[in-house]
Amino acid sequence: MNVKRPPALKKDDGIGIVAPARKISFDEIGKAITIFEDHGYRVVYDDELFASDNQYAGDDNLRARYFQKLLDDNNVKAVFAARGGYGSMRIVDKLDFSRFRKNPKWIVGYSDITVFHNHINRNYGVQTLHATMPVNFAGNTKEALEWMFDVLEGGTPEYLINAHPLNKSGKAGGILTGGNLSVLYSLCGSHSFPETDGKILFLEDLDEYLYHIDRMMMALKRAGALDNLAGMIVGGMTKMNDNEIPFGKTAEEIIREAVEEYNYPVCFGFPAGHIFDNRPLIMGAETEMEVGEKAKVGFVE
Fold this sequence. Notes:
Blueprint: E1 14-18, H1 26-38, E2 42-44, H2 60-72, E3 76-81, H3 88-91, H4 98-102, E4 106-109, H5 114-124, E5 128-130, H6 142-152, E6 158-161, E7 170-180, H7 181-186, E8 200-206, H8 210-222, E9 231-238, H9 251-258, E10 266-267, E11 281-283, E12 286-291, E13 295-299
Parallel strand pairs: 1-2, 1-3, 3-4, 4-5, 7-8, 8-9, 9-10
Antiparallel strand pairs: 5-11, 6-13, 7-12, 12-13
Helix pairs in contact: 8-9
């Protein structure tokens, strides 16, 4: 399936903000709204964005209805998830992507938004953007935000990454897939889980126990999801936890061990994930990577 890139944004286009998972307040995204407007965009949201149902931004039906409204609004050219948390899996099957498929728009976010990246890329053949979210804008680096807007406006980034001691050298090309490891693991066996053969798999995670990282990597390996990759990119493995008796490996070492037997290149230390310098990745895009003394990662237009 050819994966179609959504149209580039133009000044005065509408950018919708949705909360498909954890609840959000205006104070948490006010800075982001200003940044969007300073870039010449109209920000589209209403009071339902700030709904509350325990941890969620409203119940499942409300969150799905609100997301659907933005998907179907022809005046909205990109939809940003305000934040992650947990909840996207609960609503993804309530959404109708038929109009979106005919008139695609950028869906932007990371973490729990991994659900939508993989579901949309696999089932509807539309690229999505793994990038920072409004709740993070105030703390993001200048580069993370500039590169994000550059991609939305038609740019195609190329990254040069410093050497990492765990890297596996080589060249590869393939469609980029993946996202947050914990969320990806939760999609196993569903029609939202990516077909990984010949793909470049991106992984990142936050606040997981190290033995959980090992368990998830073993699950992907036993499912055959790691066997025939073209390559792998590993982003931030942030704020990992350990038990009283140490696991004995870092998250990066656990991942390296899981893919040791394979011949494809692996790039560690990519600046994406739960970090301030969260650079954008075009999920579903044809991607080229070369890992040597440094690593290069770029997208084919």
